[in-house]
Design a protein that fits this description.
- The structure is a single chain.
- The protein has one helix and nine strands; from the N terminus they run H-E-E-E-E-E-E-E-E-E.
- The protein is α+β, with helices and mostly antiparallel strands and 145 residues long.
- The strands form two sheets. It has a five-stranded mixed beta sheet with strand order 3-9-8-5-6, with no helix packed on it.
- The radius of gyration is 29 Å and the shape is rod-shaped.
Length: 145
């Protein structure tokens, strides 16, 4: 047996359907037939990834300056990367990001720690990258003397 609420909902849905069909057909008779514009991908806004699916990497250097040949430890946390995902330390050289021989994997708790040896005197711009993904930490600067 149906309740009064269910009967009322069914009647309301039917009445709404009739109203929509009537309005649509009245509009069709009252105007010239024009084809409806078809949506195109270029005219539609691109969907943005939700914040929960975006991956990120934070970074902190153990020191801001070292002597040439000394090592610096980089630590941070990741978000959106699975435990065990490989990470690599990169430095900027000639406008390009070059991987160094310092690697790590995302640990339980989404943290990482890697140590890189810096041999070139001057200012080093460094970041951590998720291997195989376009996910990078912010850039940190270490002065090498």
């Amino acid at each position: 047996m149906h309740t009064k609420r269910q009967i009322f909902r069914a009647l309301a849905a039917g009445a709404l359907s009739v109203a929509l069909l009537s309005a649509g057909s009245a509009g069709a008779f009252g105007t010239e037939a024009k084809p409806a514009p078809s949506p195109t991908m270029s005219g539609m806004p691109k969907p943005k990834p939700s914040p929960t699916t975006m991956a990120s990497i934070s970074i902190k250097a153990s020191t801001a300056s070292v002597k040439a040949g000394d090592s610096v430890t980089f630590t941070g946390r990741t978000s959106g990367l699975k435990v065990g995902w490989p990470l690599v330390l990169q430095h900027q050289k000639g406008g390009k990001w070059i991987p160094l021989k310092a690697t790590a994997k995302v640990r339980n708790g989404s943290s990482y720690s890697l140590t890189g040896k810096l041999n070139n005197p001057g200012t080093e711009h460094l970041r951590v990258s998720a291997v195989g993904k376009k996910v990078y930490s912010p850039t940190v600067t270490v002065n090498v003397g």
